[in-house]
Structure formats: C-alpha cells, structure tokens
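I'd like us to work through together how a protein chain folds, taking it slowly. We need material for that, and I hope you will provide a protein of your own picking. Go ahead whenever you are ready, and we will take it from there:
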Amino acid sequence: MFKPLSTVAFAVVAATFAAAPLQAQQVNTLTPQEKAAGWQLLFNGKNLDGWHSYQQKTPGKDWSVDDGAIMLERSRTGDEKDFADLVSDAEYSNFDLKLEWKMTACADSGVMFYVHESPKYSATYETGPEMQIADLVCTKPDSQVLYERSGDLFDLISSDVERVREAGNWNQFEIIADHGHIQFFQNGHKVVDTHFWDDDWRKLVAHTKFAQWPDFGTFKSGHISLQGTEDKGELPIRLWFRNIKLKQL
C-alpha cells in the first residue's frame, strides 16, 4: 500500500532538489562531449577573432561584442563598409552549424553559407544560400511572404509553419550541409530538407531572382556569413549572435 512521505521526509527531498538546480551550459563554450565529437567554436565570446566583413580585412565598425554575443548596431544610413556582412575567415564544405540569434523588433537578417569571396562578386548573396532571419510579425514584407519568413531557405523553399519567437528572444538555428543534402532546423524543428546541385536545384534557382547570378548556389565550399546589410526594423537596428559552433562532417 502506498504511504505518503512524512513532512520531514518531504522537506528533505525538497531541500535536496532546491540545493541542486539544473545547470545550463555556459554560453560560447563546448562540453567535453562536444569537444570529443569534433565541435569547434566559431566565436569565442570575447572578440571578433576569426571573422571579417565581406571583402574587407577586419570587421566593420558597426559589429562588436556585447555581453558575450556578436552584435550589429546600425542605422539606415552610413558607410556600407561599417555594416557589411560578417564572414568567417575559414571556409567549410560539409558541416553541422549551430548558433543562436535575437534581434530588435522588425529587423531582418540571415545566415549564409558557401559564400565565395572574390572581387568578382559584390555581395555575399551572389553565391551563398541563406537561412532567413525575420521577425515573427513585423518585418515588412518578409513576415507576410512565403519563402522570406524566418527559417526559410530565402526565396527558394519555405517551411509550412513559422517556428520563430518574438523579437527580443533567443532563437536557435541549425544548418546541416552534408554532400549536398541540406537541412535547416529552427528552435529544434526541421523546417527545410532539400538537395543542392542536381537538376531540381538548378530548375528551382532558375525561377528566382538568384538566376541573375550564375554562380549562386554552385560552390561546394565557402564561408559562413552573418547578414548586416538589411536596414529594416525599428531604430537603432540591433542583431545578436552567440553560441556559434560547427562540426565538420
């Protein structure tokens, strides 16, 4: 027969749980298990080592580190070099990329990959596909347009459900690129699953604005990029990125 805990026993159990709360992993760190599995940090939480602005040697001045996160703070005007897209120094082919982001209301950004850096190209999006970042309700027109909502493969493939949190909250992105098999996850939910470089991919690109850039989505290795060139949102426009980690496959 079940017997309820005595008042004293219950107090001991409660005190034990109160004294040992679950410990969240510290941001911008790797667990021993992650290190053993081959994960590496792309952002150390302290400075912008390992990153530069597109077609520049160093990060633009609108990019900084704020409370353990890469932060962009920009206006609608100014020198584009100051808020040019941030690009990883290293290039990657097959990888699992995870990161967290948040933004001020109505902002717009994205995470690009397979970005090719050359004087031949003036912008990251001429070569690199993008996992879109947009506010849940007020990024105009993106929040109201399929293929341009948060988590979409921008202008190419849209998720059935927009699984993004309101502005000011952290969101999790994961991009798995494995020999042309591309998967996007937003806040733990798979939102895109497709393949690059086959006939279906080429036909898909041919019906979008990316058709004007013949090298878009063709590279099998390239830089990771955090977009800073969109001027949407309430001023000052701010974006934050943290816990940027990658495992090569």
User: Anything to note?
Assistant: The longest strand covers residues 237-248. The chain is about 10% helix and 35% strand.
